[in-house]
Amino acid sequence: MAEIKDTEADFDDVVQDGAQSEGEDELYEHYRFVADKGQEPLRIDRYLVGFIQNATRNKVQNAIRSGSVLVGDVPVKPNYKVKPNDVIRVVLPTPVREGLIIPQDIPLDIVYEDADLIVVNKPAGMVVHPGHGNYSGTLVNALAYHFEHFPTAGAMERPGLVHRIDKDTSGLLVVAKTEYAMTHLARQFFDHSIKRRYKALVWGDFEENEGTYRGNIARNPADRMQMTVFPDGGEVGKPAVTHYRVVQRFGYVTLVECKLETGRTHQIRAHFTFNKHPLFSDERYGGHQILKGTTSGSYKLFIKNAMDTLPRQALHAEILGFVHPTTGEKMEFSTPMPYDMSTAISMWEQYAQESMKSRMR
């Protein structure tokens, strides 16, 4: 949907008072976006703020006024309305920062490693790969320190990576250590033959013990930081299928296991939000609000304590299975939920038990 080139420079560094920096004849493309087929008319400054991390509307407007934002190779004004299939480019007089990976001695929770691949248990809060505003402290920085040579497959910004999980999602990732392993594992993800199981704590209860969510996933036109669901089989978005099974019911929230057939951005978060079950404590998708339950002060305090314990979306990549690229062996790994999520679940379990006792009195 959108190709993004990351840059070291900030809009504040390259655009001053609405004028392009002097003495620079060459411009470099730092960002490139292609608007969705279903894009609704939206001011270009609002559109770009939704995509470019740490960019304020004022910064974006300065860049637009300086002639740094192009649609169809033509500079546009701040009030330009983005239309379906628009090709939007941000060009700046400073070169793009590419291919620079800083090795950092960051502890890794290594679940398995051999000559071909490494399986790591990523903690919540760690970004997977460097990007705009995050050139250090990422999983890739840690891996660069752990071993010298990454396979790149033409993508220096994502060396060895064949999949990823969100910054605030914990759990298992497999990273290739050779070009052959990267190609082989990437094919398994493309064929949807990888086994992936997630645990999620979501708002609300379910009538059935298991089910399937289907629907194309694409950027939310009203909020570019979110993904949302469009009609299955339509032209907007990419097909996505999530199977779920109820593990434990707590009344106002439910612990579910999710099996992915596809691996779209924010797939679990978008599918469950669309079906009125946002993930507990997921601020981006509204799960940080009280969506079910009573209005009592004690309940509100309980929710606050639970979210203070788990200040992120309640999502954990628990199981990962694949065929080893060299040996052909079927491999499967699992990792327990981290302390923050398991503690929040225990708090809900205790709350549900106490609520049941009070109703029986």
Structural notes for this entry:
This protein has 361 residues and is α+β, with helices and mostly antiparallel strands. The chain folds into 3 domains: 82 residues, Structural Genomics Hypothetical 15.5 Kd Protein In mrcA-pckA Intergenic Region, Chain A, CATH 3.10.290; 81 residues, Pseudouridine synthase (2-Layer Sandwich); 158 residues, Pseudouridine synthase. Helix content is 23%, strand content 28%. The protein has 8 helices and 19 strands. The strands form 5 sheets. Strands 9, 10, 11, 12, 13, 16, 17, 18 and 19 form a 9-stranded mixed sheet that branches. A 4-stranded antiparallel sheet has the order 3-8-5-6. Strands 1-2 form a two-stranded antiparallel ribbon. The radius of gyration is 22 Å and the shape is globular. The relative contact order is 0.12.
Helix percent band: 10-25%
The global form is: globular
CATH class of the largest domain: Alpha Beta
The fraction of residues in strands falls at: 25-35%
What structural class do the secondary elements suggest? Answer: alpha+beta
Order of helices and strands: HEEEEHHEEEEEEHEHEEEEEEHHEEH
Question: Which regions have little confidence, pLDDT < 50, spanning 5+ residues?
Answer: 1-25, 152-158
CATH topology of the largest domain: Pseudouridine synthase
How would you characterize the largest beta sheet? 9 strands, mixed
The number of distinct helices, counting runs of at least 4 residues, comes to: 8
Mean pLDDT: 85
